[in-house]
Amino acid sequence: MPEMMNDSDDITPVTTGDGSTDIINLFGKYELGKLLGCGAFAKVFHARNIGTGQSVAIKAVSKQKILKSGLTANVKREISIMRRLRHPNIVKLIEVLATKTKIYFVMEFAKGGELFTKVAKGRFSEDLSRRYFQQLIAAVGYCHSRGIFHRDLKPENLLLDENWDLKVSDFGLSAVTEQAQSDGLLHTLCGTPAYVAPEILAKKGYDGAKVDVWTCGVILYVLNAGYLPFNDPNLMVMYRKIYKGDFRYPKWTSPDLRRFISRLLDTNPKTRITVDQILQDPWFTRGYKEVNFYSENFDLSDQDNDKGLNAFDLISFSSGFDLSGLFSNSDISDCGERFVSAESPQRIVERVEEVGKSVGLVVMRKDDWAGARLEGHNGNFIAVLEIHRLTEKLVVVEVKAMERNDGITEQIWKDKLRPQLRGLIHNAVEQVSGN
After folding, report:
1. Which Gene3D superfamilies is this protein grouped with (predicted)?
2. Are residues 127 and 30 in the same domain?
């Protein structure tokens, strides 16, 4: 029987024909299977989409542990970053679900498991090492082109699909260009000790792209050798080896591969090889097939509402599911609010008309019940309500109010309108936001 998650508001044991409860039903949408992995803050389960039969991996993250550890920003960033990444060699984030106690990442299931498990059984041939390194660089280069740096690349975070192709996962420590300080560098100390770049140890700031290249070099060494280039039971001794670039090649390493790895594990980030240079290196390009995909098949557009909103907009368009609302409650944000509703657009607009008129506002509908405009109180309150289709059963309602310094807008919204519109909010959202 799968390990239970102690979250009564989102999982339901399902009784089978013989009276047992082997199946755990999550949100009425997924059947949870075996536990795939367990960390300090999360558990990862194999699951099946009840409607489609698709296998997925679900990472259940404890809100309480995240809050206590001060890692709220990391989880928000991981969701935001994974939403932006659509590449054949990166694990796809399908949707995010949340309740009062947990956040669930529903992800593409990598049937082949961790690359670490495979290399732990024995080193790879040079050709196989090259194949996986090429796929790794394809993914890393894609991330860098979008201003995203992983910062925790290692074989444990590299998964294999049913075709034994590589998939980069776990963006929990990743960073974006905007996090760089005034010197243009990142300063957060992070990563796995054996894979950490020497400039991180120097604590003077670092280039996220150069750090990822270093860890890619360590990974390539591991694939070819079957063990780490820098390793010692004494952590400080290991760090000194990393800082000095003190490692030896196994005797079977070809001269071309030695030369290439030395460019990756260059302790000077200024002279270390870049991703663009990697793509031109003779050792790397041997048998290389560039990953071709059409961006429109992978990228999510925040601007295109004609196609309907996707599952991620449950996060970004709802006060219960937005990235801050995953952890806390707010009554009003930027003089407005977003929420998910199971009511029809017509019913929502009609209810808004009823409530608006009851507090002395003039309400003007938009065409096709797509929203409304509210005005009143001698021009002290103006708000626009827009309705977007999310799924067949759900819509996202966005309320934008004109900000005033006198506090009247907030008072009208918070004290008069919002309480009377609460009945429109989908109950799952209310569970999430703790209301």
Report:
1. Kinase associated domain 1, KA1, Phosphorylase Kinase, domain 1, Transferase(Phosphotransferase) domain 1
2. no
- Is 366 within any annotated ligand binding site? no
Q: Which of 7, 9, 127, 152 is an active site residue?
A: 152
Residue 362's beta-bridge partner residues? 375
Q: Among the listed ranges 138-142, 247-251, 361-365, which one has the minimum average pLDDT value?
A: 361-365
Q: Is 161 a catalytic residue?
A: no
Q: What is the pLDDT of residues 257-285, one digit of tens each?
A: 999 999 999 999 999 999 999 999 999 99
Q: For position 31, which CATH number holds?
A: 3.30.200.20
Q: Are residues 246 and 283 in the same domain?
A: yes
- Give the pair of three-digit tokens for residue 63: 């809100």
Cα 151 to Cα 208: distance, rounded to the nearest angstrom: 7
> Which residues form the domain of 179?
113-291
Q: Max CA-CA distance within the chain?
A: 84
129 shares its domain with 77: no
Rg from Cα positions in the chain: 25
Yes or no: say if 100 and 431 are a contact pair by the CB < 8 Å rule: yes
Rounded Cα distance, 243 and 200, in Å: 9
Structure tokens at 135: 């796929």
Mark whether 145 and 261 lie in a shared domain: yes
Phi and psi angles of residue 352, each rounded to the nearest 5 degrees, phi first: -60, -40
Question: Which whole-number Å values give the CA distances from 268 to 198, 210, 265, in the listed order?
Answer: 8, 10, 9
